[in-house]
Specification:
heterodimer, A: mainly alpha, 3-stranded antiparallel beta sheet, 6 helices, globular, B: mainly alpha, 4 helices, about 70% helix, elongated
Chain lengths: ~150, ~80
């Protein structure tokens, strides 16, 4: 029965983004069309829709592959993902004109200004969120699919 | 050989052919150890409550989002 473990790892990995992304789409559609927020939705969706699920799936495959050697808990392993995902997301956002790097702050979507001073706090928060998601959702899915 | 005897011979031949083509079903071997303790252990693992550290992390995240509500789209972008 223990066949195609990497395929199952990929499926378990993409589960969370696949579940959450329609909600994000709904929120941004409401913001854009309902409240007239100046978010370019079509460009915004490139990273979360095209790259994040793939990142989750590949990261879970790597977890399954490396776990017999590293024995790293899945929560900690997932918490590392933002360190790779955030630069990729920032690069995509920069290429698509979604983000501008100023002298003291980053401006997202032409409206949200994030000072560099609190950026580390946001990264730590992202790592904490990923830790919880990977520990409790992806980890339990891995157990259900018989690969943990 | 009459009709009845011929049918009987034919049935025997078919029975032998079927028995030959289908291997006998062996009895399921017993597991080498008692599996019930493992099942109980797994059930107990599922019921374990999250540690305080995870609750603290969750509270910190909620607090951060409450403190910087305008950053929610940025978090959603990075998921």
């Amino acid at each position: 029965m223990n066949t195609h473990p990497y395929l199952r790892a990929y499926m378990a990995g993409v589960f969370v983004p696949t579940l959450v992304l329609p909600l994000i789409l709904a929120v941004f559609t409401a913001l854009r069309l309902g409240l007239g927020a100046p978010f370019p939705i079509e460009r915004f969706l490139v990273f979360p829709f095209a790259l994040v699920p793939t990142l989750f799936g590949i990261w879970n495959i790597l977890y399954l592959w490396s776990h017999p050697r590293t024995h790293l808990p899945i929560g900690l392993y997932g918490a590392v993902l933002p360190l790779f995902g955030a630069p990729i997301g920032a690069l995509v956002a920069c290429c698509l004109g979604l983000v501008k790097f100023g002298g003291h702050a980053i401006t997202y979507f032409q409206t949200i200004v994030v000072p560099y001073a609190i950026l580390p706090l946001f990264i730590v928060a992202a790592m904490a969120g990923y830790y919880l998601v990977w520990k409790y959702i992806v980890g339990s899915l891995n157990r259900v699919l018989g690969i943990a | 050989m009459n009709e009845h005897g011929r049918n009987r011979t034919e049935e025997d031949r078919i029975r032998k052919l079927l028995q030959k083509s289908m291997p006998p079903i062996e009895a399921e071997p017993e597991p080498s150890r008692d599996l019930w303790p493992a099942v109980l252990k797994r059930l107990n693992e599922k019921q374990a409550a999250p540690p305080w550290f995870d609750w603290a992390l969750l509270a910190g995240l909620v607090g951060l989002v409450a403190f910087f509500p305008t950053a929610i789209p940025v978090f959603l972008y990075y998921l």
